[in-house]
Amino acid sequence: MIYGHGDDNYTSNEEIISNFSSNVWFGADMTELYEYLSKALPTTVSYPEPNADSLVKALSKKLNVAANRLLVTNGSTEAFYLIAQAFRSHNSLIVTPSFSEYEDACRINSHRIYFTSRLDIQDALRRFKPDLMWLCLPNNPDGYFYSKNNIIDWVSKYPKTTFVIDQAYANFTLQRTLAPTAVHQHDNLLLVHSLTKTYKIPGLRLGYMIGSKRLIDKFTSLKMPWSVNTLAIEAGKFILEHDDKNMPTAQWLVDSRNLQNQLCEIEQLEVHASITPFFLVELRQGKAADLKKYLLEKGILVRDATNFRGLEGEYIRLCTQTPEENEILTQHIKAWYSQPN
């Protein structure tokens, strides 16, 4: 559930100096956005647009997708819950490990849930014939990147299955994710995006999904009015106009590779290589909860990833920070392992 996610510093009284637990672009310069939103504050005396129509219009122009194929949501998580609600009591197939909210949304809406590893997707689709399939591209928590050709092949072969492709981290890799216009060729394809990871504003809760008019109409009929607040709408329009200024840099990926290599030198760890700035680290010795507690005392927050379905063992998830912070993290982990038992 929600309390199992990263960035849970609200549960602690410790001062957080370095946050490795949340998958957001730490280098985003928020100055102009903050100034813009401060000027928009007086507009909050009125209700927001019921369906964020002005942001939908801006997205339609930006993505070259018709407005009736778009729905703006209160974070990508609202999209997942709307999808699960629209398909209430249907069959869902979830590839693990992955984001826990797919499963939570399905359980709340009485789905029959099937799980599969990424190696057995083809077989699982054939065996279970699911109404929904949930897939993250690139995948959270390990940064795995599925072949786009494979995804489109599955979408084409199983037209009765609606494929929910979560592309919240599309800007966190040099690999190209599915284009928005892919929904024009496939009525059973849904693309879900976040507008907060790149601009480091997850607290504003803003996302959107792209799909067929039929599906979007169905989700819209279930959506609570005003779920996206005025400041989030304004932030979204600002982001679309200035998205060239705050894109994650290629250097971030280089720094991530360097951090992964540093941690590989610690024999008690197994680093799962990733093409994104976030990645999994498996503890060969010790408990993830104990390491997290130790690092928190040093002002460092990491994600205890042992609760991801499909992972067996002790794991933490890290999202790369500055080279200086990365070095400090590495040294503290070494110090933790050097303590006497």
In short:
The chain has 11 helices and 13 strands. It has 341 residues and is an alpha/beta fold.
Question: Describe it for me?
Answer:
This protein is of the alpha/beta class and 341 residues long. It has 2 domains: 2-27 and 248-338, Alpha-Beta Complex (Aspartate Aminotransferase, domain 1), CATH 3.90.1150.10; 31-241, Aspartate Aminotransferase, domain 2 (3-Layer(aba) Sandwich), CATH 3.40.640. 36% of the residues lie in helices and 17% in strands. The protein contains 11 helices and 13 strands. Strands 2-8-7-6-5-3-4 form a 7-stranded mixed beta sheet, with helices on both faces.
How is this fold's topology laid out?
Blueprint: E1 18-19, H1 31-40, H2 53-63, E2 70-73, H3 75-86, E3 91-96, H4 100-108, E4 112-117, H5 121-128, E5 132-136, H6 148-157, E6 162-166, E7 189-194, E8 207-210, H7 213-222, H8 230-241, H9 250-264, E9 269-272, E10 278-283, H10 288-297, E11 300-301, E12 303-304, E13 314-319, H11 323-338
Parallel strand pairs: 1-11, 3-4, 3-5, 5-6, 6-7
Antiparallel strand pairs: 2-8, 7-8, 9-10, 10-13, 12-13
Domain unit count: 2
Q: Describe the global form.
A: globular
- The CATH superfamily title of the largest domain: Type I PLP-dependent aspartate aminotransferase-like (Major domain)
Q: How can the largest sheet be summarized?
A: 7 strands, mixed
- Helix content, binned percent: 25-40%
Strand order of the largest sheet: 2-8-7-6-5-3-4
Please work out how many helical segments DSSP would assign: 11
- Poorly predicted runs of 5 or more residues: none
**Class of the largest domain, according to the CATH hierarchy?**
Alpha Beta
Structural class call reads alpha/beta
Beta strands, count: 13
Radius of gyration computed on alpha carbons: 20 Å
Distance between the terminal alpha carbons, to the nearest Å? 33 Å
Query: What integer is the average pLDDT?
Result: 95
Q: What's the CATH architecture of the largest domain?
A: 3-Layer(aba) Sandwich
Query: Helix and strand string, N-terminal first?
Result: EHHEHEHEHEHEEEHHHEEHEEEH
CATH topology of the largest domain: Aspartate Aminotransferase, domain 2
Strand content: 15-25%
